[in-house]
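Look over both lines:
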Amino acid sequence: MKLKLAISTLVLAAAAFAAPVWNTSADLTGTRIEGSGLTTGNGFATDNLSLSIAWNIAFSQNTNLWTYSYTFAGVPQNISHVLLELSPNCLEQGSGCVQNPSVSKGNLGNTEYKSNWGPQGNSNPGIDGYSINGVKFSLTNIKTGTLTFESNRAPVWGDIYFKAGQGYVFNTGLKNHASEDVNLFVARPDTVGRVGSETPEPSTMVMLGSGLALAAWIRRRKVSSLS
């Protein structure tokens, strides 16, 4: 009984410890809409809260790469650029985090990498006090369309931002990485390898080791008390 109680307590403690979802393994498909996962600003008006960002991610055994697709819909003005969060080492030359980007409509311009995409004057309004580490896709003549690229990184929960006219849109969790709600983030490239193949985080291994040690200690006490 004591052993079961101790293990249950340990499991609950581990769950509480791992509560924030930002930077953890993400869903391969999903949609975020204005007012429910997406925050808009600068008088950005859409048709009955129809603005949305949807993603679809697939892994190819042939190329050993992930294909990321982000579809934008309900945007009232042309999107000028999209900022997508990446892990810090994705900014290194030849990292392979973003390969062969393309768009289904309009035109794709420069693809730039930076460790702190902040307000930059009025280029990225609404971010104030926060920044995104990642890639900037410059776009023209796109209101509704799909941005696609390949990556050697598996998806985790993270941030996205885009500007259209004077309006802006970002996932609501951008300003709250301590959130436990996956619906406030989008999937984006980060960890190496396929989902589920990553080694456990050090903290998880420590807690698992502690649990095994605790179980062994309780058993020794039980045997000792019987002898």
In short: Confidence is low (pLDDT under 50) at residues 3-16, 196-212.
